[in-house]
Write a structure and sequence with these properties.
eight-stranded mixed sheet, alpha+beta, 11 strands
Length: 263
């Protein structure tokens, strides 16, 4: 009887030892994972939480095809810039401090925002306090951001789906920063009807809205001289005129400074 008790005690001790070893091994694995992948797991978890609260984070722009070159035609001028008029007719300009709205008899409206009033976001970051800018530089050292277009491109192209617990730690920090900015920037218009990017010879940027769906369209564009442009195209209720992608392409391809002799 005592021999049976001894054997039972030995079995219990062996079982306890095996459990202790397994727990110790698990603790080591968890510790190693936390050290190696803790930051990435945290950013991955945050990304999923943010996406559930703000679906906009999951939306990335789809590239627009390069359009055919358009000839110079009747032009609209505002804030020392000019564009080809997207529609025929003589629109009525309605100026305000920050934009000029061109109203057409056929019901289309083009709002041209003052380029000088657009926030120089990259310079604002660069001129922030030295500690914050140092953090920015450290996070983006491998993929530096050197223009406002590059900043918006990287921010708008970021998605929580790109995060992973097993990704590179520096890349996880970079994506985390981009997603935070994406939350802060927000969309210029609801992206539900479409969100697009374009990168053509002298102009590049982003389009919010698909004109074929009858929705307003917002444009944020950057030229090769560092200017930033914003436009809004819409129609009034009951308008006979429409907005087409060709109208938008014509506007974007022809935006330029008014020659000094014509100012």
């Amino acid at each position: 009887m005592s021999a049976i008790r001894v054997m039972t005690d030995d079995d219990n001790e062996k079982s306890s030892s095996a459990t202790a070893i397994a727990l110790a091994a698990l603790a080591i694995v968890v510790a190693v994972f936390t050290v190696k992948f803790g930051l990435q797991t945290l950013t991955w978890t945050e990304g999923k939480m943010w996406a559930a609260q703000t679906p906009w984070l999951k939306v990335v722009p789809q590239p627009l095809p390069t359009p055919t070159t358009v000839a110079t035609g009747p032009q609209l001028k505002a804030f020392d810039f000019e564009v080809n008029a997207p529609w025929p007719g003589n629109p009525k300009p309605v100026p305000t401090e920050t934009n000029v709205a061109f109203h057409y008899d056929t019901g289309q409206v083009l709002v041209f925002f003052d380029p000088e009033a657009q926030l120089d976001t990259l310079r604002t970051i660069q001129n922030s306090n030295p500690l914050e800018y140092q953090k920015f530089s450290n996070v983006f050292v491998d993929k530096p951001i050197d223009s406002n277009f590059a900043l918006y491109r990287d921010v708008y192209s970021a998605s929580p789906a790109q995060l992973s617990p097993f990704m590179d730690a520096r890349e996880a920090m970079r994506l985390n920063a981009l997603l935070l900015w994406k939350l802060e920037f927000g969309p210029d218009l609801s992206p539900d009807s479409g969100f697009y990017s374009f990168d053509w010879t002298t102009i590049r940027g982003f389009q919010f809205g698909d004109p074929t769906k009858g929705a307003p369209v917002a444009l944020r564009a950057f030229d090769d001289r560092g200017h930033q442009f914003r436009f809004m195209l819409s129609t009034v209720p009951g308008a006979s005129g429409k907005i087409t992608q060709d109208d938008i392409d014509k506007l974007l391809q022809t935006v330029q400074p008014v020659p000094f002799a014509d100012r």
